[in-house]
Amino acid sequence: MFETWYYEVVSIDGDYANLKRTDIESDDLKLVARALLPADIYEGCKLRYELMQYYLDQN
């Protein structure tokens, strides 16, 4: 079974982005290399993580 997690891009710092989970209550940030994220991310955009990949969330 694969889960789907939702994130918001809180900040972008060079080759890394700080992501915050939005589908659960958490103040923790996850530092992710930009190479693993869609190229057109921006601060405040929503991401969906499933099957070990990040996608821009269109909802």
Please tell me about this protein's structure.
The chain is mostly beta strands. It has one domain (5-56): OB fold (Dihydrolipoamide Acetyltransferase, E2P) (Beta Barrel). 0% of the residues lie in helices and 49% in strands. It has strands at residues 5-13, 16-21, 29-33, 46-50, 53-56. A 5-stranded antiparallel β-sheet has the order 3-2-1-4-5, with no helix packed on it. The termini are far apart. The model has no long low-confidence stretch (mean pLDDT 95).
On the 0 to 100 scale, the average pLDDT is: 95
Which percent range fits the helix content?
under 10%
Total helical elements: 0
Rough shape?
A: globular
CATH architecture: Beta Barrel
The CATH topology annotation reads as OB fold (Dihydrolipoamide Acetyltransferase, E2P)
SS class: mainly beta
Calculate Rg over CA atoms.
11 Å
Major sheet: size, sense and barrel closure? 5 strands, antiparallel
Output the strand order for the largest sheet.
Answer: 3-2-1-4-5
State the domain count. 1
Which percent band covers the strand fraction? over 45%
The stretches of 5 or more residues where confidence is low (pLDDT under 50) are: none
- Please trace the helix and strand order, writing H or E for each element: EEEEE
CATH domain class name: Mainly Beta
Distance between the termini: 23 Å
According to DSSP, the number of beta strands is: 5
Summarize the structure.
The protein has 59 residues and is mainly beta.
